[in-house]
Amino acid sequence: MSLKHKIDIVKRLHADSKYYEIELQNQQRRIDKYIEENRDEYDIKKQKEVLEETQKMIPDCKNRLQKACQELQDYMDMNPALKGTAEYTTAENILKNLK
Fold first, then answer.
1. For position 94, which CATH number holds?
2. Using CA atoms, how far apart are residues 74 and 56, in angstroms rounded to an integer?
3. How many structural domains compose the chain?
4. Contact in structure between 94 and 10 (CB atoms under 8 Å)
5. Which of 26, 31, 40, 53 is the most buried (most CB within 10 A)?
6. Tell me, what's the pLDDT at 55?
């Protein structure tokens, strides 16, 4: 697997992680709105189930991101000849920004 591919994996997992965090906030607002509007209890219950599923995804996604970051770092460590390339610099910047 190439360095570029590993970088793309980290970027994708980072985007997924951010998405779930935003979705969690949006879902909570949706539930609060439903409660405020006195919506049917079934609808509120279903939205709470969606919230719970989103909450479960966050730790999983963060674990996958952490693992991908470690794999990227390991790949960089095992391929010192890549130092100085644009991809290597990109990988370094991504890892630095995610820590």
1. 1.20.58.90
2. 28
3. 1
4. yes
5. 31
6. 95
Q: Under a CB-based contact definition with an 8 Å cutoff, are residues 54 and 23 in contact? A: yes
> Can you tell me the distance from the alpha carbon of 37 to that of 85, in angstroms, rounded to the nearest whole number?
56
Token readout for 93 is 């910047």
- Beta carbons within 8 Å of 45's beta carbon, 6+ residues apart: none
Give the Cα separation of 60 and 41 in Å (integer).
29
Q: 10 Å Cβ neighbour count for 77?
A: 8
**In which domain, by residue range, is 33 found?**
3-98
Strand extents, DSSP E, 8-69: none
Percent of residues, the chain, with pLDDT higher than 90: 98
Average pLDDT, the chain: 95
> Residue 1: its pLDDT value, please?
80
pLDDT in tens, 45-77: 999 999 999 999 999 999 999 999 999 999 999
- CA-wise closest residue to 1 among 78, 60, 61, 98: 78
